[in-house]
Structures are given as structure tokens and as C-alpha cells.
Amino acid sequence: MGIDLQHVIELMPDITKAFGETLYMISISLVIALVIGLPLGILLFTTDKGLFLENRALNSVIGFIVNMVRSVPFIILLVALIPLTILIVGTPIGPGAASVSLSAAAIPFFARIVETSLREIDKGVIEAAIAVGATPWMIIKDVLLPEAKTSIIQGVTLTVISLVAYSAMAGVVGGGGIGDLAIRFGYYRYDNTIMVVTVVILILFVQVIQFAGDRISKVIDKR
Description:
The protein is mainly α. It has helices at 5-10, 12-46, 56-71, 74-80, 82-89, 95-119, 123-131, 136-170, 177-187, 192-220.
């Protein structure tokens, strides 16, 4: 199966637009995942048994909600959140609409990554901070986040890569982006060239994200 370069050139405006929509969706979803998922992950860790903000009831509720959302396949989540999407952005289609479902999927995913990263910290470091009278906020700001920053950066990289996959899936319901281009031109019109090009773009994009994440992680790792 060959690649028709002339055909690719003709569709370049559509490809560029689709890639821009993918970046738009991922950027919005990532920001929301960081803003909400990071505090959720910290709460999941600090409210657990034996920690300085122990609250088993709150921990159980947050854990249940996070696990419930994570257990729903993304394609089902896309459909289930259509009423909420319409309420927020006014339409169930387009990159803005897809960002709602992407954010909903990314928040619990990143929260669990943050929790896991914090659990890797030596408990002695936390106990030492408590012993010298550090407040919970000081422990979070000056101990937990600095100690876990390398692992959290790696978690951000993993979250972005997952969002790339989810954003491609959003094309099935008219979410825009590379996935939508592949469905409209590649699948419905049996255009193998576009199918190959979109797959190559996504592979290269993921490789760039992984490389950048690894580099940043190594730069901030003082060990």
C-alpha cells in the first residue's frame, strides 16, 4: 500500500487544522487535569490511614469516585457526558466539547499517578517534618511535592500520551482533531493514505512527548 504524496499535499490544510484541534483539546484537558487532579492525588495520599490528614471517610469517597470514573471505557464516557458537555460548551461536537470528556478521564488518571508518586517518598522524611512542627501545608509544599516532582513529571508525560489516544478516539463522535480526520477521510471514504498519515503523525507526536518528558524529568532529578 503506497502513499499518494500529491493527495497528502492536497489535504495538508485539513491535516494541519486537525492537528491544531488535537493540540487544543490536549492542552485544555491537561491544564484541568493538573489543576484538579494534583490536589485530588494529594488528598488521596494525605487522608489515608496513618498520614497527617487522616480521614478515612473522605479518602473512601474520593477513592470511590476516582475508581468509578476510571473504570468507565472512554468511548462510553464520551456519550454519557453529552448532557454535561452541552451544558458547559453548548454543543456535543467539536474540540471544545471533546475537552470536557477528556478532562473527566484525565483527572482521576492523573490523581492516581500523583498518589502513587507520593507513596514512593520515604515515610521518615514526612515524620521528620512533623516532628519539627511543620504544618500540613508546609509538608505538602516543602516535602511531598519536591520529593515526588520527578515521578510527577513522568506522570504528566504519561497523562499527555493517554490524552493523545483519547483525543483520537473522540473523533468517533465528531470531536475533531486527528481522530476525526481519520474517521471522515480514512474510514468513511476508504482513504488508506490518510489513515497511514494520521497514524504516523500520532506516533511521532507521542515520541516527541515522551522524549520531552524524559528530558525534563532528568533535568529536575537531583539524585
